[in-house]
Amino acid sequence: MKIKKVVASKGFAGFYYDDQAAIKSHAKHDGFAYSGEPITPGFSTIRIAGESISVMLVLDEGRIAYGDCVAVQYSGAAGRDALFLADDYLPIINEKIAPLMVEREIENFKNMAEELDNLKIDGERLHTALRYGITQAILNAVSRKKHITMAEVISQEYGIEIQEEPVPIFAQSGDDRYNNADKMIIKGIQVLPHGLINNVEEKLGRRGEKLMDYLSWLRTRVVQLGKPDYNPIFHLDVYGTFGQAFNNDMETIAKYIMNLERISQPYHLRIEGPVDAGSKEGQIKSMRELRTELKKIGSKTEIIADEWCNTFEDIKDFVHGEAADMIQI
User: Fold this and answer.
1) Residue limits of the Methylaspartate ammonia-lyase C-terminal domain (predicted)?
2) What is the pLDDT of residues 13-22, one digit of tens each?
3) Has residue 73 got a pLDDT over 90?
């Protein structure tokens, strides 16, 4: 099976791009938008529509394999690739990548994906959104060739056993963290609510009091709305606001997390991104120090890495640096 043609089509992503630096600094809600000036390069306003490029591989036996090039909400922040705007990257696909793929034999996924991941154009690796979408299309093509699902392709090529039990779902509330938490509880979501705690004044509180109040409310709602055997994990993404509020004092942050842990009981607590040190090396150091402080006071809260942990190499560095209990991918 060969690739006969590569078609790339601009579209919208499922969500929006947000300028994280502006939101953490000064932005205010204005309906679904934000007021204020953007900070991160590429943003015309603090919130803009997310964009995508759908990649279609036309195969010689008539079928089409699909992949979607998309980027994360906080593009351009914390070591991530620059803002992904479709018009900037369509020419790269059409002029640089497509000629390399036409007439290629569809082999196995792993080799073709690694080749694309390591491809450099003008001395630079491809934007992560391009690598994500194009390798997705390759995976779809291999699954069509073998007449199996994409999950089975991954299982076979990487030696991963397919899990028969459902994988726990982690749901995100967005800013409507009260109503959406209720919806999650009613459906029995295993890990909730994310919370989108990305601003000290509006969402955390200068002393952390707003988040403490929210967590107390959440625990009560689980009891009120959940089934008797419902035992969710509370996972809060705080975007480095603990460091902002408590001047990156790890001992103080650890004590605050311990207070949150007590409020959460009997439910297990996870905190994602408690600090943002401004660099990968600084983040690993700060997160390791915080985990050490938490262990000293007997905390069972898990600390999750997200900011500055973007690539496979980053993940290995965070794990080897003992900087996280879990990685957000």
Assistant:
1) 162-329
2) 999 999 989 9
3) no
Residue at token pair 């949150």: 260
Identify the pLDDT of residue 237: 97
Residue 164 lies in a domain: no
Beta strands, E only, the chain: 3-18, 28-30, 33-35, 47-59, 64-69, 120-121, 124-125, 191-194, 233-237, 269-272, 302-305, 326-327
- Asked whether residue 166 is domain-assigned, the answer is no
Give SS3 for 257: helix
Neighbours of 203 (CB within 10 A): 18
At residue 264, φ and ψ (nearest 5 deg) are -70, -25
Read off the CATH number of the domain in which 318 is found: 3.20.20.120
Counted domains in the chain: 2
- The answer to whether 54 and 68 have CB atoms below 8 angstroms apart is yes
Rounded (5°) CA angle 112-116-117: 115
Nearest to 87 by CA among 131, 38, 136, 42: 42
Residue 329 reports pLDDT greater than 90: no
Chain segment 246-292, per-residue pLDDT in tens: 999 999 999 999 999 999 999 999 999 999 999 999 999 999 999 99
CA 32 – CA 50 distance, rounded (Å): 14
DSSP H helices, 172-279, are 179-187, 209-225, 241-245, 250-264
The CATH number given to whatever domain includes residue 44 is: 3.30.390.10
Q: Is residue 194 part of a domain?
A: yes
Cα separation, 19 vs 307, whole angstroms: 14
* Kind of pairing between the strands at 269-272 and 233-237: parallel
3-state class of 234 per DSSP? strand
User: Taking a C-beta distance cutoff of 8 angstroms, is the pair 105, 13 a contact?
Assistant: no
Q: Are residues 198 and 235 in the same domain?
A: yes
Residue with token string 């943003």: 43
